[in-house]
Amino acid sequence: SRHISPLQNTETSEFVGTNMHNGAIDTYAELTLVEQYAADPSISRNIPLSTLAKRKNQVTFGRVKHENVDVAIQSTKFSSMVSRRHASIMLSNRGEWSCVDHNSTNGVLINFQKIEPGKPTSLSDGDVVTFGTEDSDLVYTFEVGRRRQPVNNAHGANEVKAQKELEVVENAARQGFYDEKQAQHMRMQIQQKRQPKYLMNFNATPHSTRDIGGFTEGEFRQARTETCFKYVFSFSDKQWKKSVALVTMDDHPFGKGALRVCYQMRDWTKPHGEQQYVAKQAMAANEPQLSYFQDAEMQELCVYIAEDFNAREPAKRVEFLKAHVVEFFERGNKPVFACEEYLPGKYVKHNNNWGWLSPEDRNTPQAFSHFSYTVTNGMYLICDIQGVDDVYTDPQVHSKDQRGFGKGNMGRDGMNQFFKTHKCNAVCDQLGIATENRKAKDVGTRPVHNPNRGRNGPAHMPGLIGINGPPAARGPADPYYMSDQELALSSLKREEYNDIVSKFKQYDTTNRAAIDRKNIPHLCKDLGVNVQPLHLESLLMSMDTDPTGAVKFQVFLQWWVEVFSK
């Protein structure tokens, strides 16, 4: 029998469920889900037993987390598979691990054998622990001494963030913010972000070449192809690398700019769906090849800085197309072209290399230009931002010493011109680069709420006088009143504000300028928005200030302006 007392003393030097290393007991243990890929996203993948057991030497599992349950586990196949207080895994003072079933409805299996309720059963490294019957999807391997306690890393941070978002979704579902279908959709979205990059999906492995889509043999045979040299700049080691590509290029350009003509090109060495490129050639016959290589280096620098920008989690991410150079060595004059992926859509120019700003003066492109100067310690400034949405191409970089980056590099003068017209905005605020030189009225993109800034509701936004100020400063007693001055500073138009008030009042059944929290998703839908987990969390935190659990109009409006107002 494997029944033991979790605190019993034994004379043997071998401890069940532990590993000895140089005389020290390694008790780091965890449960690892067997079906990592196929399982529902709401099921915990790894449960760090040692970490959770530090306080009281045991970890208790149940259907819902509460004061007597440390870890909530819930089968997505059978809602009643796990009992309210199902089982515990315990660590003895000798480093021995054991499991006890708390008379649960469906029991616990160890190595597919049901254990006797109420009696601790020893656990050894490699044991399979099933919470519930043999049909349960909560099947874990018990592992001890195989890994050290995980340190903070990129995947670990993503796992923590995903777990936090899942907790928000589950909390919101229990309070009625999401129905089960909506909650399941949110879980699947979050799971996409938490999957380790090395996890295989064996269900997708093709059985033959016919299972892989793409261009056909006949399509390739009919194409008029050329062989060319392909030159790619590696930003990581600052080296150019040469390879061979097989391409098809149109005979006639499909467009032209002030300095270059553009051809459609298909790169057959790329996967299907990634083959369409634009090849650009200078109209000046004497254009030196140096300019092509400088432009490609410049664009790769922008790709690198954009990754740094996105790592700050701005409200909107940016992307630069990767560029390379091709040389048609089989043609008589061996022409070269600058190439990048074809980008469909409407091109918009946001600024240029001499301080000009588009009339829209969007926050994200201007903040990115400012960020590029700050993150490079004033050495470079990326401008001439243009593209489709926030996918950019054909940028210009100013360098302080005016070296490199082609004829458009205006050096310090170009940087000075940018800062003469740039006004810091809400995205600059979020990035921590904002100066006192600010927009008089910022109606552009605002950063997503930061859930780590405290539990006292949203931080006050500059300019919302009546909403942020004391009641005495509000003027009329009507809780739905907002003066023209307040409205101008809130980034809302009068008709937008009136629409919010009108739809909010439809749910204000008590005439207290407050609505039940369960009506928030319906109100948001009425206003044309589906609430996301991080947005919802900021509102949940705001609601903590209301003892009745209702959401006051001022709290809702503050949250709405901060998160959704454009």
Summarize the structure in words.
By secondary structure, the chain is α+β, with helices and mostly antiparallel strands. It is built from 14 helices and 28 strands. The chain has a 6-stranded antiparallel beta sheet with strand order 4-3-13-12-9-10. Strands 14-15-17-18-21-20 form a 6-stranded antiparallel beta barrel. It has a 5-stranded mixed beta sheet with strand order 6-5-7-8-11. β14 (226-234) and β15 (239-249) form a beta hairpin. It starts with 18 loop residues before the first strand and ends with a helix. Mean pLDDT is 82; it is low at 4-25 and 448-476.
Features:
14 helices; globular; 27% helix; alpha+beta; 566 residues; 28 strands; six-stranded antiparallel β-barrel
Principal-axis shape: globular
Counted by DSSP, the helix tally is 14
Number of strands: 28
Structural class by secondary-structure content: alpha+beta
For the termini, the CA-CA separation is: 66 Å
Secondary structure layout:
Elements: E1 19-21, E2 24-26, E3 29-33, E4 46-48, H1 49-52, E5 58-62, E6 71-72, E7 87-91, E8 97-101, E9 108-110, E10 113-114, E11 121-122, E12 128-131, E13 139-144, H2 154-174, H3 180-194, H4 217-222, E14 226-234, E15 239-249, E16 255-256, E17 260-267, E18 276-282, H5 289-311, E19 319-320, E20 323-327, E21 336-341, E22 348-349, H6 363-375, E23 380-383, E24 386-388, E25 391-392, E26 396-399, H7 411-421, H8 426-431, H9 465-468, H10 484-490, H11 494-505, E27 514-515, H12 520-526, H13 533-543, E28 551-552, H14 553-563
Parallel strand pairs: 5-6, 19-25
Antiparallel strand pairs: 1-2, 3-4, 3-13, 5-7, 7-8, 8-11, 9-10, 9-12, 12-13, 14-15, 14-20, 15-17, 16-17, 17-18, 18-21, 20-21, 22-24, 23-26, 24-25, 27-28
Helix pairs in contact: 2-3, 2-13, 13-14
